[in-house]
Amino acid sequence: MLAVAPANATMTTRRNLLRVSALAAATPALAGCGASGYDEAARATWRHADARPADAAALRLELVRYATLAANSHNTQPWRFSFVPGGIVIAPDFARGTPVVDPDDHHLWVSLGCALENLVLAAAAFGLRAEPAFERGALAVRLETMAPTHSLLFDAIPRRQCTRAVYDGQPLATDELRQLEAAGRGTGVHVLLLTDRMRLEGVLDWVQRGCSAQMRDPNFVLELKRWIRFGDAEALATRDGLAARPLGTRRYRAGPAACCSVSSSPRRRRRTATRRNCARRAASRCSSPSAQSPHAGSKSAAPTSVSRCSPPRLACATRSSIHPY
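Above: the chain's sequence. Below: its structure in token form.
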């Protein structure tokens, strides 16, 4: 059993861990051309280590950095890391929960599980066996020396992308779809690829209904606004939340007051119908006799007005060049 750190122990988060290092790396660029420093900070965050840190303390910090690159709900980063003799403890940070969209903290715990998986992969690559256990409401990870084990999943950690931006409209190749299907196979799970046009339209219709129901809930809208970062400066300051770039825009010009507004006006209903028609046309373009992808990732969490069909907000799953930060 690994001793779990007390509540008042010094803990580490991505925001604290990377704020100094990333901003230090961005300092030269900030001095010229009026750059925001966002790109430099993203590169300093989403990178592989040049080498295994020789110092034990630095090595544990590097493991935590990899762990914090995990997918997590709304990029709330609902975790606290603490160093204890023989390992690392990952504890939930319920203050960073999303009680409206995640009332039972399911997303929060899944986020911690993703962080744990990253830590296990990084530890193996650096020659440490990570043995996790659930102890006293936290994830306790014991670290023991072993031969380094490099994996493709470890290589993929800083290349992970999560974007709600507009997709490029190009369907995935059949071989790529087969790879996705194979990657999703596991004990009791599999991937279902939808290629039939009518089934695609049915999924898109339910996605639209679900999004509309959420946006009619004022509590959901308020919670969503709390986690949207309206521009590069705010994203750099907080180091969390849904940054404007992954949402498909550099900034929301209207600001928080106008973001996520919900109206039942005829004009809004016409825009909603237009978006649905755009989505269905996109589904039609993505359908072909050969296997194609199911549907586009998620709709933008903070939808903006869409009055025409090019480019669609909902389309087939396609490549995107947006950086994940």
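The CA atoms of residues 278 and 310 lie 8 Å apart.
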